[in-house]
Each structure stands twice: as structure tokens, then as C-alpha cells.
Amino acid sequence: MRGCAVKRLPAFFSLGLALALTAATASENWPRFRDPTGAGHHVGAALPTKWGAEDILWRVELKGDGHSSPVNWGERIFLTAATDQGSNRLVLALDARDGKLLWEKAIPCEAPERTHGMNSFATPTCVTDGERVIAFFDRAGAQLDTRTKSRKGRSRIARRFNAGWAGNEGQAPSG
């Protein structure tokens, strides 16, 4: 599937999942890939298996391409995207109630890495603890304040990390 069309999906493609999760788990924070515990199982009210146009709360087009899963804390949704053939990476914060873009933070990447044919330059899902959102983009990354988007720390990976997905691995905090 190298070079398949999925690589060019716009970042808003992930928002269908965000909307379903927001509606079904409005009181639950979903701070990382695969659910709050990382196990990939949802506990609680049943998630919808079908929906139509009448079930969509909002839709918004976002800048760039991305494959990250949305994460949320409270009424904020965080996503990643990439523009300029990967030389500009974005962390996006949206209001879960209406999809309004609250802020975006650009993270430059001087030498974009090779991507896997099924991924983009913004595949890894960010993580959040409600105070910071951490985005990993191969050798570029950032820890950002969730309210102000200001940097809370440096997240530069000292050496190449590759588990087979060309720098597009997911991430999960420990502890």
C-alpha cells in the first residue's frame, strides 16, 4: 500500500471519531491513543455503530494532513497535522462543543523524516494531562500549555526512534 491515497487524507477526517467520542463520553477525558487506559476498550455507554448527517454536531475543515487520533481533556480536543511536505508540524486545539479552533502551534522540522506509505508526517497521537499536551513528530516535538499553547518544555529526541513505522509510532505516557 505504499503511497496509497490514505496518506493525503485531510486532518478533519479524524473528527468523525472525535464527535462520536465526545458525545458518548462527554464527562470522560480521553487523554491518549486507544482510550484512557491505552487498552483499546471503551467502558460505559455504548458508542454509536451508525450515524447520519443528523447525528453530526459540527464539522470543521482543518489545515494540513494528519492521521493522529483525537484526544480530549474536558472540552478541548487536540490533534496533529503537517503542512509543507512535513517541514511544518501543527498541534491543534479545538473546542469540543462547536469545533472552533482555539489555537494552533507550529513546530518546525528542519529535515522531514521518511514516512511509512500508510502514514503521514502527523500520524502519532498526542497525549495530555489537562495541563500540557505533548506531541511527538519523529525528531521534532513539543510540550505545550493546553490553555496558552506556550512551550512548557523541550521535546527533542536525541537519536532516531524507529519501531518500523518510519517515525510514526504512537505514544503513551507512563506513570
If you had to describe this structure to a student in words, what would you say it looks like?
The protein contains one helix and eight strands. The model is unreliable at 1-26 (pLDDT under 50). Strand 6 and strand 7 (140-145) form a beta hairpin. By secondary structure, it is mainly beta. The termini are far apart.
Topology:
Elements: H1 15-24, E1 71-73, E2 76-83, E3 88-95, E4 101-108, E5 127-128, E6 132-137, E7 140-145, E8 151-154
Antiparallel strand pairs: 1-2, 2-3, 3-4, 5-6, 6-7, 7-8
Largest sheet: 4 strands, antiparallel
Structural class: mainly beta
Order of helices and strands: HEEEEEEEE
Give the % helix.
Answer: under 10%
Low-confidence segments, given as residue ranges, are: 1-26
The N- to C-terminal Cα distance equals: 36 Å
- Estimate the mean pLDDT confidence: 75
The oligomeric state of the chains shown is: single chain
- State the total count of DSSP E strands: 8
Shape: globular
Beta strand %: 25-35%
Please state the CA-atom Rg, rounded to the nearest Å.
15 Å
Strand order of the largest sheet: 1-2-3-4
